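EI: anyone free to look at a 86-residue chain?
SC: sure, send it
EI:
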Amino acid sequence: MYMLFNVERFEDGIRIIKQSAAELCNISLYIDHYYVGSMASLNDLTLKLPFSYANSIYIKADVLSNGYIYSLTEKHPITHSNNQYL
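SC: here you go
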């Protein structure tokens, strides 16, 4: 399945990288269903995790395509760089 973002884990943080050419706006981030924040757009963002046992990050974004706006949600597991789940 095609994903709009790539999420990488490192030590006590994560890096979110936009990997889509689509126009994205109104992006909201949730860690294990807890609201983290929103932003108008996102290309690359590094976040310090609020706790080490976080399992997933949910990214909600509005995508502009062919003159229409679609709301999409992606779920990414938060893994270490060696792909070991917490």
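EI: Confidence is low (pLDDT under 50) at residues 81-86.
SC: 👍
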